[in-house]
Amino acid sequence: MSPHKVRLSLRILLAAAVVAAVGAVLAAGLRTQASSGGAGTATLPVTQELNKPVPALSGKTLQGQPFDVDALRGRVVVINVMASWCAPCRAELPTLAAAAQRFDADDVRIVGLAMRDDTGDALALLRETDAERLTVIADPDGTRAVELGVRGVPETFVVDRSGNLRLHAFGPITGEWLDKHLRRLDST
């Protein structure tokens, strides 16, 4: 084997080892974050606390209406990043729709962000899951979701009344998750 091929082979092996090591570290970190109590079982969603300004989030809803998160200052805003091609998103949408009605009087607004989705497919999903009353912003190229810090779908962000991101949940949320975190956020 030529010296060039040996060096190339060593570089490839080194790169593979680095990728494997990084993957193992990330997987161990997620297992540690997701474990609950001493049982070691993973629970979703994994929730991260934040304290930073919400990035600019404006655009058109799926129905073509203008939307700007800054107009909701003074309310708690739950931003759920979803897509019609995402099975867990489909499963959590009825929970979000019910919560939107339940929390409406409490000055909590639940908003969807249809990431990398076709408008027609996203609207069909809302119809199928009885979530047509939700405000959902179109994000066909995913740039708004990336600006929020999304790594996949579904993910949920909670913005406090001052316009700061306070929570980031990885994975599908439940009504219990919303009750717990929105009540805690409202008391601070």
Explained architecture:
Its main location: other. Pfam families: AhpC-TSA. The chain is of the alpha+beta class and 188 residues long. It has 2 domains: 30 residues; 141 residues, Glutaredoxin (3-Layer(aba) Sandwich), CATH 3.40.30. It contains 5 helices and 10 strands. The strands form 3 sheets. A 6-stranded mixed β-sheet has the order 3-10-9-6-7-8. The longest helix is centred in the first third of the chain and has 32 residues. It starts with a helix and ends with a helix.
Describe the SSE topology.
Blueprint: H1 3-34, E1 35-36, E2 41-42, E3 46-53, E4 58-60, E5 66-68, E6 76-82, H2 87-103, E7 108-115, H3 119-128, E8 135-139, H4 143-148, E9 155-159, E10 164-170, H5 175-186
Parallel strand pairs: 6-7, 7-8
Antiparallel strand pairs: 1-2, 3-10, 4-5, 6-9, 9-10
Salient structural properties:
5 helices; 188 residues; antioxidant activity; 41% helix; Glutaredoxin; 27% strand; alpha+beta; signal-anchor
Report the sheet-strand fraction: 25-35%
Oligomer: single chain
Count of helical stretches:
5
Number of domains: 2
Helical residue percent?
40-55%
- From the 3D structure, determine the CATH topology of the largest domain: Glutaredoxin
- Cα-based radius of gyration, to the nearest Å: 20 Å
Largest sheet: 6 strands, mixed
List how many beta strands DSSP finds: 10
Uncertain segments of ≥5 residues (pLDDT<50)? 21-41
- How widely separated are the two ends? 67 Å
The CATH class of the largest domain is Alpha Beta
Q: Spell the H/E element sequence.
A: HEEEEEEHEHEHEEH
* Class by alpha and beta content: alpha+beta
